[in-house]
Amino acid sequence: MADVPDNPAGDLRADFSLLRRSCGPCTLKEFCDRADVVYEQVRRRGLFGRRQPLARGERLFRPGDRQSMLYVLRGGALKTLAPGADGEENLLGFHVPGELVGLDALANGNHLCEAVALVDSHVCGIPYSELTSLTADHPEIGRRLFQLFGRGTLDSQDHVQLLIRRQADERVALFLLSMLHRYRKDIAETGGQPGAQLALPMSREDMARYLGLALETVSRGLTRMQERGIIEVSGRQIRILDHAALEALARHDEPPGCDDQARHG
Amino acid sequence: MADVPDNPAGDLRADFSLLRRSCGPCTLKEFCDRADVVYEQVRRRGLFGRRQPLARGERLFRPGDRQSMLYVLRGGALKTLAPGADGEENLLGFHVPGELVGLDALANGNHLCEAVALVDSHVCGIPYSELTSLTADHPEIGRRLFQLFGRGTLDSQDHVQLLIRRQADERVALFLLSMLHRYRKDIAETGGQPGAQLALPMSREDMARYLGLALETVSRGLTRMQERGIIEVSGRQIRILDHAALEALARHDEPPGCDDQARHG
DNA sequence: CGATGTCTTGACGCTTCTCAACGATCGTGG
DNA sequence: CCACGATCGTTGAGAAGCGTCAAGACATCG
User: Fold this and answer.
1) Is residue A196 classed as helix, strand or coil in its secondary structure?
2) Cβ-contact B160, A156 below 8 angstroms
3) How far in angstroms lies nucleotide C11's C1' from the CA of residue A216?
């Protein structure tokens, strides 16, 4: 929580350089890099790129909140929930470091979802107003923003494709692969090679709600994969033992000749 | 197909006024209204707001196509399909007049889906390049574009919420309600009052693929609603007889006291 | 050390999928 | 104009997957 010193306003230029040094995989890196371009406006507001800690269980925004910021998750993990008509809350997505949060408010300026920290986290926020003035001066930034927004839509479409006509085990396998992929962008060391370790930040229940399954079904799916030697499960720690088999499971093609009733007879 | 004369380039100003007259519910109306602002560039390219007919079954774009245009559906209906790894194509969405098509390419500039006309249709395309240059001169248009893009993300999130942990009948009811809502924006006369008529442009199979169900399940769901007196089904013509009951079904609260095993014993 | 939250495992029943046949509708051509 | 085929929609029976309920194992925290 104290790996990068907070430095709200005051010495903003120093703050920028500190931020940049820790901005490796940050989605908004180029906006921060552009910060000196609008340095004067930024200085006046003292908001640009401000770090904000978020304790586990804390909300970044809730439904109905006016969208003021575009957030990038810098550390930790978030989930976004949409309030259903019946009081239930649908789990629309997870966010890992480097990803944008809060795009659901683009359409009408108010958030429809709430974002909750799964673990202690911190975000960078750029005021939305700064962003639009930036794009006016620098059209290439506008195009880049379009790309980032498009990325958000694709994430939702991927979620849809995970849900449509896929069996429970496929969904769980796809989920693990997607988490692996998203963390890989951030943590380079635990690559796709066998033995990759995955530290899931969410509970089984959250996984289940995201996958449209009962939490027991998710648990069973993980157990079954472990029995097949594809993964090794220890709570939220998942070790990928057979990446190819995991992908095969996600594609729903059973590895032929791998009859697993060889358990004792 | 000939209700508005085509007029590519040449007399572009006349073309604009004609278009505007038929642009009532068009999502890009304000961009067309702005057209005179960039008249010179537009004239050079002769593309802005050009109408394009699309016969039933024809493709507007396919996966891998470079995104050149932002389309608005002006008449008819489209579906967008995403190619799955196994050859299957997931149905990601339907589009009715007034809605944007082709936003899936925002992220990387290439389409990932294909858009196919369900019935004879026509679209208006605005070259993407024109759009970005427009936003540079008019930041309020950029903000409006952000809104439209955000709308696309919300559509996908609605789709997710339709799929997560909802039973077959709920999904079908929600689907009917959403189609009703989307057409109501276009066709004012068939409002929410009982007796509203809905002319679905898609087959049962397409509905099923969108809803993540087997087509037989969709058919059975419609039949069951008809037996309950909620709707009247005649192929793709659906008449809404009891709007409240339809909404109750979508919310999964059974109308109490309405025991329908009174069929004979 | 007990309490609580989380995860796993088991048994049973229901929803939905699959397979299959039938019926309706529409367009085509004789 | 009617017969024909093709596409689309409906209906039925059986099976399988998954949800629900319930109990137990495990870890964490006060």
Assistant:
1) strand
2) yes
3) 14
